[in-house]
Specification:
Elements lengths: L1 E2 L2 E4 L2 E6 L2 E6 L3 E8 L7 E8 L4 E7 H14 L4 E2 L16 E2 L16 E4 L7 H9 L3 E6 L3 H6 L9 E4 L16 H7 L4 H14 L1 H16 L5 E5 L6 H13 L3 H14 L1 H13 L4 H11 L3 H15 L2 H7 L5 H11 L2
Parallel strand pairs: 5-8, 10-13, 11-12, 11-13
Antiparallel strand pairs: 1-2, 2-3, 3-4, 5-6, 6-7, 9-10
Length: 345
């Protein structure tokens, strides 16, 4: 089958380069996707192929050819990763803040391999159909649960066959505004007049707390040990605070620019917007005052000042993020190299 200037046949991609015939075995391709600047099928597009040997190829063709090429490559290699998620939510219907970090670009121009690193909120309401997607399409192997023991008992994870579940509690006990052991009404009774200041203080405490550091370090070890071709998922209750800090640390370790890290953190607000509005309407129906609702909205939202307070605290107390990763997360130079080799292309 021909697509532009390449031919896919007998499990190989064939093309010419500098008057020489070249080939790429489909089984050696890790990831393939196409990019285009136009929605018109007659306009130019490019199919990008990244191999297990860290080689990158780009072939120009029409958008229609590019879409057909990606589908045909997938048919020739069922485990091939296709598409370009850019950290977007997974195509799930029962959970709303489950996101693939794949496609994010690092400072040195590499990209995070899709279908490998998944951040999420709780999996209590995960449907059988969505569990099947995680199992068959993402080859999910490990779920790390950052919640407290009580949270896990109140809303246990939906169990997926063949997946290993690891209890990795970032806190030993409930923390107001972070864990979800209290009802919204009970939380409101304990919040002060400045919820933003409260949350910033809480984020600072998280990154300095020894217990939190221990379990975040375990999180990194699980990432390093995760087998090639299998996804690992980490979650808390909403997927904003404990998961937000874990993801921030991981993206720093992989070399993602700070602005992109903040963009990923703030994306939670979009993913959780429907849930947020439902909660606010529920509180309104119970005659909760508007100022109290706004306090709850602040606590439940992702705000740049929250994550920035954690980053600033790390840099103030440890000198740099690199020192924090080495000293608090126990990541050696070899660990960081292996982490990048495993998840970047």
């Amino acid at each position: 089958m021909r697509f532009g200037k390449i031919k896919v046949e007998n499990g190989e991609v064939r093309f010419s380069k500098m008057m020489k015939s070249c080939l790429i075995p489909c089984k050696d391709i890790r990831w393939a996707y196409y990019v285009t600047d136009s929605r018109e099928e007659t306009k130019d597009a490019s199919v990008v192929i990244l191999t297990k040997m860290q080689k990158r190829y780009q072939f120009e063709m029409t958008q229609a050819e590019a879409a057909s090429c990606i589908s045909f490559l997938k048919e020739n290699h069922k485990d091939l990763i296709v598409g370009y998620p850019k950290g977007k939510p997974l195509p799930l219907n029962s959970v709303f803040n489950t996101r693939d970090l794949g496609g994010m670009t690092t400072n040195d121009g590499r990209k995070i391999l899709p279908y490998q690193l998944i951040r999420s909120g709780e999996l209590y309401h995960l449907s059988a159909e969505d569990a099947s997607v995680l199992q068959s399409e993402y080859h999910l192997a490990t779920v790390l649960d950052f919640r407290t023991e009580q949270e896990q008992m109140q809303k246990p994870d939906t169990v997926i066959d063949g997946v290993t579940y690891v209890k990795n509690p970032i806190f030993e006990e409930a923390m107001l505004g972070i864990t979800r052991e209290m009802s919204p009404m009970d939380m409101l009774m304990q919040l002060g007049d400045n919820p933003d200041a409260y949350m910033m203080s809480l984020y600072q405490k998280i990154v300095l707390d020894r217990n939190s550091q221990y379990y975040y370090a375990r999180f990194f070890q699980h990432l390093i040990d995760n087998e090639e071709g299998h996804a690992i998922l980490w979650h808390c209750s909403v997927g904003k605070d404990r998961v937000g800090i874990a993801t921030m640390l991981l993206l720093y370790a992989l070399g993602v620019p700070r602005g992109k890290i903040m963009d990923d953190y703030m994306r939670t607000n979009t993913c959780q917007s429907k849930e947020m509005e439902y909660l606010c309407r529920l509180m309104k129906s119970k005659d909760v005052p508007d100022d109290a609702i706004e306090k709850m909205r602040a606590v439940m939202s992702a705000k740049e000042c929250y994550l920035q307070s954690a980053i600033s605290t790390i840099e103030s107390e440890y000198g740099s993020m690199e020192h924090y990763l080495r000293r608090a997360m126990c990541l050696t130079a070899a660990n960081l190299t292996n982490l990048k080799k495993r998840y970047l292309v």
